[in-house]
Amino acid sequence: PPERDLAALARRQVPPVPAVAGRGAVGLWSLYPRRELHRNMPMDLRVALGDIGLFSHFFTGFVLRDYQAAPARAIVEAVLDPDRSIDRTSALVFSRQAGKDETLAQLIAYLLLRHSRAGGSIVVCAPTLRPQAMISADRLWDRVSTSPITKRFSRRNGATIHGGRARATYVSLAPGSNARGQTASILLVGN
To answer: Which of 48, 52, 169, 181 is most buried per CB count within 10 Å?
Structure first.
């Protein structure tokens, strides 16, 4: 069926999340009781987990906009299909307050979930550990700790978030910091 064709699904726009009076757009989890969610969800769970835009829509409560989802999909494609002849170096350049850090948090949450069985590591480098790297780590933790599908993720040492056998580690690249020994097998981010 067309709903299961992930390429077609990735090109299709995700419908907007409904607004609740006084609360703005909210995630699907807050609109339906959990026991009723599977009956009301319009597509199969595997399909929703096959696209970062759908993952964002159904599981994080913060829907990526089209201009955020498009580069996130390109990065996911490069990470998940390394044998293809696509450029594996990407740069996200958004204007101030346009959601670069939100896009990054959801991208990392998605990749942690996709690699939770196979394992691997994501290293996120920031100019300073406090406050910049910790703010980014807190944002990622907020996204994964509120979603039922990632609620078993854990946080260790404040700057490392584990999803099964995969992990994301936030490090500082400030002069005098000691970021040696970190290996990025899934994704390396310079923020």
So the answer is: 52
